[in-house]
Amino acid sequence: MIKVFSGTANPALSSEVSGLLGIPCAKSEVIRFSNSEVRVRIDEDVKNTTCIVIQPTANPTDTNLIELFFFCDALRRMEAKKVIGIIPYFGYARQDIQHRPGECVSVNVIIRFLESIGFSKIYAIDLHDEATEGVFSIPFKNLSALPLLAKRIKKYVGDDSIALISPDQGGIERTRKFGEYLFGKADCDFGIIEKKRDLDNIHKSEAMALYGKVEGKTVVLIDDLTTSGGTLINAAEFCIKNRAKRVVAGVVHHDFSPDAQEKLQASVIDRFFTTNTISLSDKQKFEKLDEVSVASLIADEIKSFL
Q1: 195 is catalytic
Q2: Alpha-carbon distance 269 to 240, whole Å?
Q3: What is the pLDDT of residue 197?
């Protein structure tokens, strides 16, 4: 027997998952006080039950993380058999190395919290770097929404000649995998844009060079996450300057900064394909946005516990 709980970060996604499973979301109460503290209470009998908590840890990242920790503690105190965390978007995943002396490796700290608080297993979707999986000492599974994005993008681009481009050097393996899903084969061609990031100024980067043929082709830019949109927009402009026919973007997570949607809408990007791992407000949505649901991906994993 399982029970599925929803945090407050993306209740629409949790509701969609529960609908696919035919299981209503279990009852809980989350109260936020005026001093910014949060209280979580479980309103179900969960003794000897496998409990699943769905909670992306996007902006406000710290608030959503604390809520997730409190869900786990509350469920453990009520003698749940297992507590499994499904974190569609895993906050702090990009802070996985020391870029400069004196910096903490933030994602390692978050993982230690998840382990010590009592989670039995953690799921995420398209973690920023697969190497982070090795930091976990509890079972962890990294799901991928790339097949879902590939299916939607393939329908959109039709019979166009396609150039797959990674907007930076770190996304080479991700772009190669996407190519397998898009073309159904492992030996597809793809290109890379060399990017220089300004470590002293957040969300600042510059496209330096393009390696790959884009002339006359529909370019598909593949990335795991965009916040300001700067990297994607710079990459798209670079491809258009190199005579690409058009540019579409396939990005798993959209952890938007306040003006990202305006920049993306005004950019040369023809269509912005993404997923609903993170809940968007109405003002964050824009005409070029095409959102694919990951509910079926999550529901299929949960079915293994039924």
Answers
A1: yes
A2: 9
A3: 58
Rounded CA separation 101/106 (Å): 14
And the tokens for 94?
A: 């990009």
- Average confidence (pLDDT) over 127-134: 91
3-state class (DSSP) for residue 198 = coil
Give yes or no for residue 39 having a pLDDT over 60.
Answer: yes
Q: Which member of 195, 241, 263, 283 is catalytic?
A: 195
Encoded amino acid at 174, one letter: R
On whether the CB atoms of residues 179 and 164 are closer than 8 A, the answer is yes
Residue 190 near residue 181 (C-beta atoms within 8 A): no
Helix (H) or strand (E) holding 278: none
CA distances to 31, 73, 161, 169, 190 from 37, rounded to whole Å, are: 8, 16, 53, 40, 48
Residue 209 has pLDDT above 90, yes or no: no
Res 212: pLDDT: 84
Q: How many CA atoms lie within 13 A of 234 on its CB side?
A: 22
Domains contained in the chain, CATH given: 2-145+295-305 (3.40.50.2020), 146-276 (3.40.50.2020)
Query: Computed over its alpha carbons, how large is the radius of gyration of the chain?
Result: 20
Paired strand residues for 206: 196
Residues 6+ apart with CB under 8 A from 195: 167, 168, 169, 205, 206, 207, 208, 231, 234, 235
